[in-house]
Amino acid sequence: MKASVLAICALFAALAFSCGRGSDDPPETDEEAAGRREPPFRIILLVSANSNAAPSAASLEESAVIAGGLTAGLAPGTATVVFHEGRLYAGGSAWERALELVSQEQYRAVIALGAPLGAVGLFEALRERRPGIVLVSLGYPDDPLAMQAAADLALTVDHEAKGAAIVRLAENFGAAGIVRVFVKGGDLSWEAGLRSTALSRFAAERGIVYEQKELAQADMRRDPALVAAELVAEKGADSEPADKEPARAAASAGKRWVFTGDAAELAGSLLSAALDGGAYYIEGAAPLFGARYGGAANLDDLPRAFDSVALSRNAAGRAAFWPGE
After folding, report:
1. What is the pTM of this model?
2. What's the distance, Cα to Cα, between the start and end of the chain in Å?
3. CA-based Rg of the chain, rounded to a whole angstrom?
């Protein structure tokens, strides 16, 4: 997703620069460069905030870091980040802020990153306010046909292909089986349902054990690291042959489980717990913005963060991630 965001922003930035100065214009002077004028148009980025964090100086600083990472490489002032809390609704702060901004002529496009529930309704309201506004959605848990009608461009991954890829990776790892972690009441989107169905079907076709672990909402209020560690430890104990049917025990003896899931809040903790417990981790949902793997503060720190997570745990397990997400 992050690669898609940067590509779309780069496209708008290129358009902005092309609108701002023609090839026949004289070269820009030092004075013009020093006092560069406002960009020809601006973009609104709708981004999910950490809804579990109470408002504080730290959360405000975190939001500033996220906004800085998303707009890096763009001309100053090109993008305005509007944070929401996982759902958009009329009267909400993000909804009203977006409507306020599109009323200003310089804003020409709105990009919803990992568009939350309610994005279709907001897009329709934005279109009514500004018929010419360009609306882009990256992922859309709302009805896909409704989003395709509301947006100028709606992007998402092929969830069946992703499910098949997770199963193939688990097979290549020689795993005992796959555990999909999800939150009760959290699977509200057609995307999550499609991924789960694909995982179940492809795992059955390949003869791989597939299990789902449901977490209660109360679990999400606990320490994510503790919850993830308990999940991995539970499957580690379950892999002992004594508690299984003989045929299944023989097939899984000495093998390790793959953990994946749609709980973005647990992504980083599940990775660490899997490495600690010698299990495998295949990314199902990337961490929330501002909660990157290994505590990376910005995109440039990500490779270093991955290395530090693996090295600090002697790479006891293995992990797989999706390029661009």
Report:
1. 0.64
2. 4
3. 22
Question: What is the rounded distance in angstroms from the CA atom of residue 71 to the CA atom of residue 79?
Answer: 6
Question: Using one digit for the tens of pLDDT, what is the confidence trace for 161-185?
Answer: 888 888 998 998 889 999 999 887 6
The answer to whether 87 and 320 are in contact (CB under 8 A) is no
Ramachandran quadrant class, 133 (left: phi over 0; alpha: psi -120 to 50; beta: rest)? beta
Q: What is the pLDDT of residues 255-287, one digit of tens each?
A: 789 999 888 788 888 888 888 888 898 888 777
pLDDT at position 54? 42
The contacts of residue 279 (CB under 8 Å, 6+ apart) are: 232, 235, 236, 256, 257, 258, 259, 273, 317
Half-sphere exposure of 113 (CA within 13 A, CB side): 31
Mutual angle of helices 159-173 and 190-206, in 10-degree steps: 40
Q: How far is CA 279 from CA 126, 174, 257, in A?
A: 46, 11, 5
Q: CA 271, CA 310: separation in Å to the nearest integer?
A: 9
In DSSP terms, 210 is beta-bridged to 178
Q: How many residues does the chain have?
A: 325
